[in-house]
Design a protein that fits this description.
Length: 500
């Protein structure tokens, strides 16, 4: 059986360039958060952790580290935690609240936030447990699943435990490439709206007039037009260079969010006509979008491994995720209150047709464009190196570039086939994010502690969370596919002509 601590072939070099991120900046959004292979070669690692019982992360006084001095501070860790959970999914949450209802939506977001944080805690606790049991420096997400499967009584699962890492890797690849598909659709929708309204764009941002849109090409043609530029961007394979672009991207998105907030808090109409709970048929779409936004569970282990004082991590996790949940709920509720039934797949598409807000759309689009390369880095480093290793060194760089072109083209083609941003987000969230964030961690807790004695209430809780995630996975995927086959005409029209 393969050593579960050993990273998968093709991903072993991930942490070397990743060890020097731009300090104090909101750099790569999900690179470290979802690169579970990065855990296995980080410079800042726990030397061994106690089991911590069933109700916590472990005793801080017994959580030892090596004597490195270049670990991240609590502030830097908090910033990375925030950027690991905040991205394009945030902009789709107002529509998600519409799919759930003005009351049911934020309540559901709060519950999902609590469950997501709890699952993050489960993952950290299980990783600590295996570090202590096997006297390892650290255990990544895939390694924890491997050790969990090796701990259960079933002989067949113990024999095939190595598949735990492979399954985690598969969902990681699907998630990351799904993000890339979302980026293509987001860029096309926003660029199309900016160009279509260019002739009617004014300096008066208080005007609420309807603008006649200039006919322009289909959004799918915009995706094809962007493809060569995205391909060239992914040819940059040095994370130090990518971190510069990522820093600029996050600054652009932060400024855009501030401008969006200052607009939606003004002139909120009477919300009495908004339904408290939407039709149950649309709730699975809410689930997919919400779990897409909350899917940052992979961030906890690499961030903890990079800290100078890992004893502070539990507090940072709860504080950071509280901030994330408040941000999600506030933007989603305010956005839905502000635009009501006219809310679109991305709240940027609802902004007025003046130069200030057109600049916001462009700023966010620039940020998403550069973030594509960062998101693409992880699946590329998992998929490409094993294939390049099969050819001679002379042709290795050619095969490398051709594979990058092929992978980017696949994400572009998938985006063209599913050109609706809300459904792409919901589909990616339902298929892959629900597994990584909700299904696996509770099952991992059962596998880890079952033979050591686990209270029936905890077993029932874990089964309930996993079932919730599995039902969301099945129903959310089904409803998204149904919408794709027969999209609602009203929704399509709204996304094309509703401009303030």
């Amino acid at each position: 059986m393969a050593d579960p601590k050993e990273p998968e072939k093709g991903a072993v070099e991930l942490s070397t360039p990743n060890a020097a991120p731009s300090t104090g900046t909101m750099s790569t959004r999900r690179l470290r958060s979802e690169d579970y292979n990065d855990y296995s070669s980080t410079d800042v690692t726990p030397e061994g952790s106690p089991p911590g019982g069933m109700n916590g992360f472990g005793h801080p006084e017994s959580y030892q580290r090596f004597g490195e001095t270049n670990g991240t501070t609590w502030y830097e860790t908090l910033i990375h935690l925030l950027k690991g959970n905040i991205g394009t999914g945030l902009l789709g949450l107002p529509l998600a609240v519409k799919n759930a209802g003005i009351l049911l939506g934020p309540v559901s977001l709060l519950v999902m936030g609590i469950v997501a944080v709890h699952c993050m805690g489960i993952l950290v606790k299980c990783a600590h447990h295996f570090c202590h049991r096997f006297q390892k420096q650290f255990v990544d997400y895939g390694g924890a699943v491997v050790h969990g499967l090796e701990s259960i009584p079933n002989a067949w699962l113990r024999t095939h435990a190595v598949w735990g890492r492979r399954i985690v890797g598969l969902f990681l690849i699907v998630t990351q490439l799904g993000f890339c598909c979302v980026y293509f659709v987001f860029l096309a929708d926003n660029l199309k709206q900016v160009i279509s309204a260019a002739n009617g764009t004014t300096n008066d941002c208080n005007s609420n007039r309807t603008v006649v849109m200039t006919p322009t090409m289909d959004s799918r043609l915009y995706m094809l037009s962007l493809l060569p530029f995205v391909v060239l961007l992914t040819f940059i394979q040095n994370l130090k260079v990518l971190s510069i672009f990522s820093m600029l991207a996050n600054v652009a998105m932060l400024v855009s969010l501030i401008v969006i907030y200052q607009y939606i808090v003004r002139d909120i109409p009477d919300p009495s006509n908004l339904p408290l709970a939407a039709a149950w048929k649309t709730y699975p779409l809410f689930f997919g979008t919400a779990i897409f936004a909350f899917e940052g569970i992979g961030v906890v282990l690499p961030l903890e491994n990079k800290m100078k004082n890992p004893q502070q991590f539990p507090v940072i996790l709860y504080v950071g995720m509280t901030i994330v949940t408040i941000l999600y709920i506030s933007l989603s509720v305010l956005g839905y209150l502000r635009f009501g039934a006219d809310i679109q797949a991305s709240i940027t598409l609802n902004l007025p047709n003046c130069w200030l807000y057109q600049a916001v759309k462009l700023l966010f689009s620039i940020g998403i464009f550069f973030t594509y390369a960062v998101q693409f880095y992880v699946p590329a480093e998992i998929i490409i190196p094993p294939l390049v290793a099969r050819v001679s060194e002379r042709w290795g760089w050619v095969v490398n570039l051709l594979l990058r072109v092929a992978l980017v083209s696949v994400t572009c083609v998938l985006a063209i086939l599913i050109p609706r941003l809300d459904l792409v987000i919901s589909l990616v969230g339902s298929i892959s994010s629900s597994a990584l964030a909700l299904i696996f961690p509770p099952l991992l807790e059962i596998a880890t502690y079952y033979t050591e004695g686990l209270h029936p209430i905890i077993i029932a809780k874990d089964i309930a969370i996993s079932l919730f995630g599995f039902v969301g996975f099945v129903v959310g995927t089904y409803e998204a596919l149904v919408e794709l086959v027969a999209p609602a005409p009203a929704v399509v029209n709204a996304t094309r002509i509703r401009v303030q």
